[in-house]
């Protein structure tokens, strides 16, 4: 433990003006995303009169195809300056989303357009995430990456708490198309914020071959699977996220259907516990200062796996509502600790000239595995019933800690690189 630091009372380091603009841009786009949460599904149902199969396809196919489209973008991003890529991805998302209110106003909005926009946004999300991780690594020294990721995590949970209620009110007053327009504007503001970071960005690594080859598309996966620390984390996060997300539609069916919870109770059950993520993210750095990143990573990774199985015991009434809120609070708190530690560890562990490809491969796999497991659990829910399928997902989540790294990672060999520039 560093001298003078007490748990939860570490001084707030200054990360500089450039990081401040990047953080503000992230918070703005995250708020816009949560304001428009569920807007596509509502537009499909209320405006285009889509059926259940079309709504399910909008959620699953858009993410899966978007992930496939993003596969070649990781290697492409690696050999370009990251700040222009970030701005471009924000503008692509802004333009794609603005096409929806424009088409709605002209009376030509179709389900196909919704699907295509969801694919474009999903692909741009993955590309932005890969480029932002690489850009952050050039912006800050390694010792500040945990602090930066903890601030992003805190912001993510704060916007999760604030965004859906505000978006719900906006949908009630103006309709779901208005929240899509607000989301588009948030990406425009994010692009302006990233542009305001300014400063010098180190040149990207030179490409060995002039043209991208088919085997280059797999570089990110090869790098992950060859590393003894990244490999277990990769499988752990893909399986954990996929199983937790796969149970959510079944939980909605169980709560809103058989158990008779109202929509506002369902929303409260997931919005209120998000405060746990905020507290968890704020504790991440002091916990690492006291116990070390490996211990915190493993402990929070084990603890977060213990909660989801509790949802199989959900019952009706206030007791059931409190059970869901308690489970979600514990789960989200542990994730709030785990996520910034894991994100910083992943960046530290990845060579600078491999970050974009690695993060892109990671995000593509996570989205694809979530889409696949959600489809599988939809079938299991029909065969076994929602409660049994939720219990099965929770039981499998209990095994995910077996995929966590068992020992601290060996240091990477030092590589010459430009020193990060601070404002």
Automatic annotation (TrEMBL):
Transmembrane segment boundaries: 21-43, 55-73, 233-257, 263-284, 296-314, 320-338, 359-380, 386-404
Keywords on record: Cell membrane, Membrane, Transmembrane, Transmembrane helix
Membrane topology, from the record: Multi-pass membrane protein
Pfam families documented for this protein: MFS_1
GO molecular function per UniProt: transmembrane transporter activity
Cellular component annotations (GO), alphabetically ordered: plasma membrane
Chief location of this protein within or outside the cell: membrane
SUPFAM superfamilies, per the entry: MFS general substrate transporter (SSF103473)
InterPro entries: MFS, MFS_trans_sf
Location(s), subcellular: Cell membrane
Family annotation (PANTHER family): INTEGRAL MEMBRANE EFFLUX PROTEIN-RELATED (PTHR23513), MAJOR FACILITATOR SUPERFAMILY ASSOCIATED DOMAIN-CONTAINING PROTEIN (PTHR23513:SF6)
Name of this protein: MFS transporter
Organism encoding this protein: Streptomyces adustus
């Amino acid at each position: 433990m560093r001298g003078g630091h007490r748990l939860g009372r570490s001084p707030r380091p200054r990360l500089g003006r450039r990081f401040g603009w990047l953080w503000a841009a992230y918070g703005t786009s995250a708020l816009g995303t949560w304001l428009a949460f569920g807007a596509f599904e509502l537009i499909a149902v209320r405006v285009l009169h889509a059926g259940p199969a079309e709504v399910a396809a909008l959620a699953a196919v858009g993410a899966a195809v978007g992930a496939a489209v993003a596969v070649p973008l990781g290697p492409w991003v690696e050999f370009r300056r990251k700040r222009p890529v970030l701005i471009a991805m924000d503008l692509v998302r802004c333009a794609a989303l603005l096409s929806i209110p424009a088409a709605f106003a002209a009376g030509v909005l179709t389900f196909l357009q919704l699907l295509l926009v969801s694919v474009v946004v999903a692909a741009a999300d993955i590309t932005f995430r890969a480029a932002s991780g690489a850009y952050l690594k050039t912006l800050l020294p390694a010792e500040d990456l945990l602090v930066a990721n903890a601030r992003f995590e805190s912001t993510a949970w704060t916007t999760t708490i604030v965004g859906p209620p505000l978006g719900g009110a906006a949908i009630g007053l103006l309709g779901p198309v208005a929240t899509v327009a607000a989301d588009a504007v948030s990406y425009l503001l994010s692009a302006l914020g990233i542009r305001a970071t300014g400063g010098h960005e180190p040149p990207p690594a030179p490409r060995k071959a002039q043209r991208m080859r088919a085997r280059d598309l797999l570089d990110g996966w090869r790098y992950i699977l060859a590393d003894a620390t990244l490999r277990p984390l990769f499988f752990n996060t893909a399986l954990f996220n996929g199983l937790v997300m796969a149970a959510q539609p079944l939980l909605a069916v169980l709560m809103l259907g058989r158990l008779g919870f109202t929509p506002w109770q369902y929303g409260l059950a997931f919005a209120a516990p998000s405060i746990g993520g905020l507290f968890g993210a704020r504790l991440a750095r002091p916990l690492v200062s006291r116990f070390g990143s490996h211990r915190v990573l493993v402990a929070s990774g084990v603890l977060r796996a213990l909660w989801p199985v509790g949802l199989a015991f959900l019952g009706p009434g206030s007791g059931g509502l409190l059970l869901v809120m308690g489970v979600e609070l514990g789960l989200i708190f542990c994730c709030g600790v785990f996520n910034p530690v894991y994100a910083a560890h992943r960046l530290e562990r990845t060579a600078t000239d491999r970050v974009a490809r690695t993060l892109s491969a990671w995000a593509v796999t996570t989205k694809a595995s979530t889409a696949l497991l959600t489809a599988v659990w939809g079938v299991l829910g029909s065969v076994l019933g929602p409660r049994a399928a939720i219990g099965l997902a929770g039981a499998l989540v209990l095994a995910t800690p077996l995929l966590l790294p068992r020992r601290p990672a060996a240091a990477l060999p030092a590589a010459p690189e430009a020193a990060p520039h601070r404002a």
